[in-house]
Structures are given as C-alpha cells and as structure tokens.
User: What shape does this take?
Amino acid sequence: MNSEHITIRILDNLKQEMIKDGLITEEQLKTAEKEAALRDEGVGSILIEKRFITSEKILNFIEERLHIPYVKLEDYEIDKNAIKLIPVAIARNYKVIPLFEIENVLTVAMADPLNIISLDRIINETKHPVEAVISSEASILSAIEQCYGLEEAKEYMAKELTQFIEEGERTGGVSAKEITEMISNKIELEGTSIVRLVNGYIIRAVLEGASDIHFEPKKDSMRVRFRIDGFLHDRDRLPAKLISPITSRIKVVSALDISKKLIPQNGRISFVSSGKNIDIRTSTHPTLYGENIVLRILKKTHILLSLPELGFSDEDLNIFKRAILAPNGMILATGPTGSGKTTTIYSAINAIDKSDKNIMTIEDPIEYEIEGTIQSQVNNKAGIMFANALRSILRQDPDVIYVGEIRDTETAEVAVSAALTGHLVFSTLHTRGAVGTIARLLDLGIKPWSIASALNCVFTQRLVRKICKKCIKEYQPDEDIAEEFGFSSGAKFYMGEGCESCNNIGYKGRVGIFEILVVNHDIRRLVSKGASEMELMESAKAQGMKTLFEDGMMKVMKGITTLDELRRVALEA
Assistant: This one.
C-alpha cells in the first residue's frame, strides 16, 4: 500500500453523498466497489489508488459531513508525553497516534475514528476518555515511526552493540574480518532487514574505530565507506533498490523528517553501550540519485590520550608542559580541520590539576566530556556564540578557559583580553603554520603589543598514520627518493605490508607531528616591532624550534610512520 492509500470504511455509508457533491462519478464508484470486494479493502483506499480522488479531499469531506476534525500530521507537533500513554503495539495495530492530553481527555488521530472496537481498546489501555480526530493512514504510520521508532532503535542498537563489544572483549579483541563475519552471520540467521543492515554498519564502524560512515547513492548502487585514520575505505556496494529504505531508516533513528528529501537536514542519536556513550551526528544532503548521508561517530566517554601518547618528542613535551602549567596567557593550536587540534587541547586540559581550578569551555560541538570541567556549547538559534559566551564565562570566576575556535575579531579581542587579565586561555585558529598565527591575529585587528604580551606558545600539528606493528618491515628506498631527502644510498626505512589486523592497509592508528613556537623574550620583541614572518621563523629556528617536517622525519627514522605519509602531510603544509 503506498503513501496515498487510506482504509476508512466509514466512507461506505457516504458514497452516494460523494457522488451528489461531484467528488466522484457513479462509474468510478462501481469500479472501486468491485475491486474493494475482491481485495477486502475499504472503498476509499481503491478510489485513491486509482487516482479518482485525493486522500485530502476525502478527509475534508468526512470532516464536513461527520463533524470530525481532520488533522494534517505533517504540520502538527505531537506531544511527547501523550506518546507514552499508548504502547507502540497498540498504535501500530489500530493505526492510531496520540496527539495531546487536556484535563485527562486524550485526543488521538485515527484513520477510522468511528471504529468502536479500536476506541474501546484505546480507552481500556490508557484509562482516559478519548476523543478521535481523522488523519490519513499513511500520515499516522509515518508519525508512529517518527515518534516510537527512535527509542526502539536506540534500545535495539545499544543491545546489539553491547553484545558485539562484549564478545570482542571476551575473545581478546576482534579483527575487521571477524567483525564482518559476526554481522553477516547474525543477519543470515535472523533474516536480512534494513534495520539489521544499518545497525550492522554502525556496529562495525564503532569496532573498527571509524570516525564517519558514508552512504553514497549512485545511479545503480549505494556505496558504503568508512573513514578510518583520516582515509575513506570502501566497505560495500548495495543494490539501488536499498537506497530509499536505508535513507528512511537512518532518518527515522536520527529524528529527521523522512518526507523532506530536497533539503539538507542534520540530526543525532545518542545511546549507551557497555558503559560507553555513543553520539552519532547525522547529515543528509540531496544529490542526483538520492540523499547522501554521513554519520559522524563521537564517543563522549572516549579515553583521552596522555600528552606523551600524542606524539610529542621529549624536548617538545617539556616545552608544552611548561606552557600549559603557566598561571595565565594564551595557548593557540593551529592547523586544518581534522589535524587533531581539539584532541591535543583536551589532553592538555585533562593534564591540568583541577582540584583548585575552575576550568570552563565553550565549544562547537562538545566532542568529549572532560571530568572536572564545566563544558558548554555554541547554540546559534539561542544566540549563544563564541564571543558572548566567552564574556559570560568570564563572569563565572574561571581559572582556565577553552574557546573552541577564534573565528572573528570580537572573539579574538575577548580571548586576548582574558589572557592578559590572569586567565589561561586555550583556543584554535585555522592557519598553515605556528609563525603564521601572528599574522592572522594582526589581520583580526589585535595590536602587536597585545599579541606579544598574551601569547605563551603557538603550536601547529598534522596527523600521520602509524605503521601497523604486526606487519612492519624494513625496506630500502629508491635512489631518487634517497637523493631527494639527502639520505645515503644504504638508508633503511619501514613500512607495513598489510595484514588482517590492519585490514590490509599497512597502517593502524595515527600520531601527531608538531611545530611549537615558544613566545619568549626575543619573539615578543620581534612581534612588538612588527617583524616579518620570515624574521620570526629565523629567530624561532635559531632558538631550537623544529618544523613539522623535521619532527616528522624523526618519527620516520624511528619506524613510527612512513616517508610517504610524511611527504603527503608535511610537504603540503
């Protein structure tokens, strides 16, 4: 039955009235009655199916003749508290959706509001007097999925994910291949369904450590890809007939409007599994062959890395620790989106002794929860932006402040002012290098003397993939590569051959490479007098600053990453 069908048998008593009103003809009615008898369906359903009349015209006609209000559920906001009064099984069986409760009277929408048996069952179930309005069956079924489907899906997904995680922990961990087999076997045993298919991809992505799942509709298929360690990897090609049901399922569990297909939508779903908070951000975008969907997986109880685990060299680690333990000043992280800036700042904040400090953040969005901190989030609709939220935070007696990003002059001015008045301020900027941050702050209108006085240090970072420890091997580079980087012809490097543990990629996990500009007396003097970026870089390097490439080369020589990774990441910086 398609979305335009309606099964309202009360029309059987109003057929002649519809003919008198010119809504249908005698011939159309006879055709519909004949087919309705063969299929044991209501005449209204057949009239709509054959496009003799629209469901909306029928519903308006019933509203007028029987004085039963007609409600377009697509334009109606359903009371969440009313939903709790009718179990999902009753709602689906009797095609009813509760709308609201006033003075103990429950108003419900039904496809057949004159069905006495259904009304009696609803009254017995809810222990409330019930008033019925009329709506189309398709609208009611859609509303049931929207209102009940989300909670059902969250519980179901959390249960299945817990089962897979516990199985993996019990057996000492599972490989990507084993994950695929576990999901495939479960689907095969219990019946392939869209619910299990979507849940299966989410489960597999979580266990493989993916940050995003991409569902990409094509002309003759849907491509499924996972982003792991910054790279997209193909995981499946599904038949085109699954594009629509998969899209609808994901939109239902993400509390999105399944009827809106031509506009982008953003949603989310959160659930707890094995003590882990999983937050999934959903983004849809209309394309030529359907809606492209990206699910971003955030583990809010993610175990934060310690500072040594981030990839700092011993020397840089000591420099960074001194900066974050200062009583005041500003620490800025720079680099493109996805370079690990937020993770580094979170780890730095986590390393600060919180017992005697008030640490507050304003983020967009909150990616991980940090115990002992007060975290808040930008909310454009509510008018909570970085600048005004930062001003509010300053009235909360903070010691340490994290501003998710400096995007404009106002935010930059307030952040610098906070650093100059006794607060330790962390933030991020989108610049290519550490030294280039000075020029960016000047572009935002900050005075040179304010920059020189406020800054403690600026660091830029990138992420390189780590060689898989289980398939690492030594190799000798080609002569032209050795010559390009100035190595001797006998130099040895390392790479991953590819194995089951790393899904035959050769890499597993990522680590940072860093460039840290310490704003000491000499740098402050140069900034105050308006020195060029080249002069600042020369001074910093003379004082021992390693560039991104130099820090990365140290990791290549130690067998942590590959020369190819370093060339890909650092040479473009």
